[in-house]
Amino acid sequence: MAESTMGHHLPEDTSRGEETTLAHAAKAGLPIARRELAQRETVPFERADKIIISGLEVFANHGVYPAENELGQKFVVSATLYANLRDAGESDDLAASIDYGAVCHTIDEYLRRHTFKLIEAAAEGTATRLLRDYPALIAVRLKIEKPWAPIGLPLGSVAVEIERTR
Fold first, then answer.
1. Phi, psi dihedral angles at 53 (to 5 degrees)
2. Which pTM does this prediction carry?
3. Over the chain (166 residues), what is each successive 10-residue block's mean pLDDT?
4. Is-catalytic flag, 146?
């Protein structure tokens, strides 16, 4: 009869003489220490493959001032989609990738349907939506620029950039 795993914890470090094996874990090919588990599960998304969307223009109604919400303005969105694209590259099949055209329409639809005071909130909501709708995404970097920001001084753009992972 297999020993119950309830109450057992993976040891922190095998080098300090703590319990290093759990018979049932070893037989199942599972890691034998927390450090090993962490090393197996953490793959930096920065080293993942990327799909880059740059300069998507969206006309939406975000801003602190009532006129911004009533009249709307242009926002420029750039997104880096982190994913494993090997299968898509090898198979030449869109179903094995993330359809960047669909992602652009998702971003446009989301930003048009919602109204936020801050572009920080618009970015957070958009990133959450992308991670929810595209399960192949490991992470997303999203930049939302507001070139017509009403600050009363000449400027090229104001922007917020965030990164979110699963």
1. -110, 125
2. 0.73
3. 43 44 48 48 72 98 94 97 95 97 98 97 98 96 96 95 95
4. yes
